[in-house]
Amino acid sequence: MSERLTIKQGPRAKVAPAAQSAFEAIRDGHVIVAPIEHSYVFVADAFNHGAVAKIHQLRGDDLGVAAQVLIRDASVVKGLSAAPHEGADALAKYFWPGLLTIITPAQRGLTWNLGDNKELGKVALRVPGNRFMTALLALTGPLAIAHASLARGKPPRTTNMIPA
User: Among residues 56, 127, 131, 152, which one has the fewest Cβ atoms lying within 10 Å of its Cβ?
Assistant: First the structure.
């Protein structure tokens, strides 16, 4: 049975207890549903092949669809990208945390499969502006995400819209 946590938002909300519970579930290989700035997403450890595959299974994704990767801050880009675009640093400084996604060639030595069997050779990176997700990323490292909807469906804005 799934465990449901209430994540209070707002400037004085304490997100650490929920982030700790989410971290434990992700560490144990589970996929969680979590809020980000504009919707809910399926979330898993980006390096756990089985958990990332479960995200794609839950969504009904076609083969070759890669998950996006959330990172805690811009310093992580250097470890995940083979060759960041020259203007990426300036964009990241201005727009991160936030909705900007930077698509960059992925490091060849990474041991992940985001759903594309590393065939795309690229990774979509973002630093979220959501306090809960920021707290979670401080505990986990890079996280694979995809909207918690069926493939090509609308991003869910409430938990009632999540198909799982």
Answer: 152
Look up the CATH number of the domain holding residue 75.
3.90.870.10
pLDDT at position 11, please?
Answer: 66
Is 108 part of any domain? Answer: yes
Angle 63-64-70 from CA coordinates, rounded to 5°: 120
Does 8 reside within a domain?
A: no
In a domain, residue 55? The reply is: yes
* Inside any domain, residue 75: yes
d(CA 101, CA 158): 23
Residue 128, C-beta contacts closer than 8 angstroms, at least 6 positions apart: 36, 37, 70, 97, 98, 134, 137
Which domain range does residue 43 map to?
Answer: 16-120+127-149
Q: How many domains does the chain have?
A: 1
- pTM for the whole thing? 0.92
pLDDT band at 10 (very low <50, low <70, confident <90, very high): low
Q: Any residues with CB less than 8 A from the CB of 153 and at least 6 apart, and which?
A: 147, 163
pLDDT at 73 over 50: yes
